[in-house]
Write a structure and sequence with these properties.
By secondary structure, the chain is an alpha+beta fold. The protein is 20% helix and 38% strand.
């Protein structure tokens, strides 16, 4: 069994095993990629043409919970490493924000249930 490591992030993220299609754009760039790490405050995107650091993007996440994309009106590129970039979400409509929170929390609860059924030792239990 793997040793339990303390969780050091400010906010919980869905595991790296998630993959959701995403589209993004700014004044000079239109691109597509895959979200590989998602929280209610940001994500990591793998793409062929990453935007520049500190760029502000319009993002459309294609999540499996609904047919319509989830619009993020303002996402700041916090870092770029090769074909990956980290985004911090800045501005979402109220309904989009609620949808994102419900989606992430739902997946986190599903993961917790899986771990509990597998008999994993959880911290604080």
């Amino acid at each position: 069994m793997e040793p339990v490591r303390p969780y050091l992030r400010e906010h919980y993220r869905l595991p790296l095993s998630v993959t959701y299609p995403v589209m993004y754009s700014d004044r000079a760039t239109i691109g597509e990629g895959t979200v590989t790490n998602l929280s209610v405050f940001g994500c990591t995107i793998e793409c062929t043409g990453a935007a520049r650091d500190n760029a502000t993007l319009l993002v459309r996440l294609l999540l499996p919970d609904q047919k319509e994309s989830l619009a993020i009106e303002h996402a700041e590129v916090r870092w770029v490493k090769g074909n990956r970039m980290g985004l911090r979400f800045g501005k979402l409509e109220r309904t989009a924000d609620l949808r994102l929170h419900m989606f992430v929390w739902g997946r986190l609860l599903d993961r917790l249930q899986e771990l509990t059924q597998e008999g994993a030792v959880l911290p604080y239990s």
